[in-house]
Amino acid sequence: MDLRKYIRDVPDFPEPGIMFKDITPLLGNVKAFDYTISQLVDHYKNVDFDVIVPIESRGFLFGAPLARELGKGIVPVRKPGKLPANTHSVEYTLEYGSNTMEIHVDGVEKGQKALLMDDLLATGGTLAATAQLVEMAGGSVVDIGVIIELSFLEGRKNLAGYNVYSMIQF
Ligand code: AMP
After folding, report:
1. Looking at domain 47-169, which CATH architecture does it have?
2. Would the CB of 58 count as within 6 Å of ligand 1?
């Protein structure tokens, strides 16, 4: 199945010059969404890891069904002020300004192996910060999975040393 048909380009969102890759057509199509999750299950069913760490918010949409299928727990990474207990925080720079992500201090146990999950890899800043959070909590990053990779932004350079799997490349 060609999933590209279900990714809509929205120019100038959320700001001028950005071509936003909108996954809502994929989410809204039962066959396309089922195919996406099945592909992820096939890719990760024989990989040795303990928890899925999905990134707020679109990462949750793919990380949760994958965790359910593979029988793994979920440790969410969220925007500041959303997680209720003690957190680790990492601030990172974006093209304009900065962003912060958080994880519960006791979310990942020492020595646990994590699979990071997001919808899209752009510059890699968000996933690099998430990898740092997992490592601060005492875990290790086994793999990083995304649905879409914007290859021209070379986000993998920001994730040197980690395995990255993407389903669709632009
Ligand atoms: P980055 O940290 O630059 O890799 O950005 C990744 C995060 O920003 C992901 O959580 C994406 O959902 C979002 N994002 C960045 N660029 C785009 C884009 N062109 N279309 C859709 N989402 C994007």
Report:
1. 3-Layer(aba) Sandwich (3.40)
2. yes
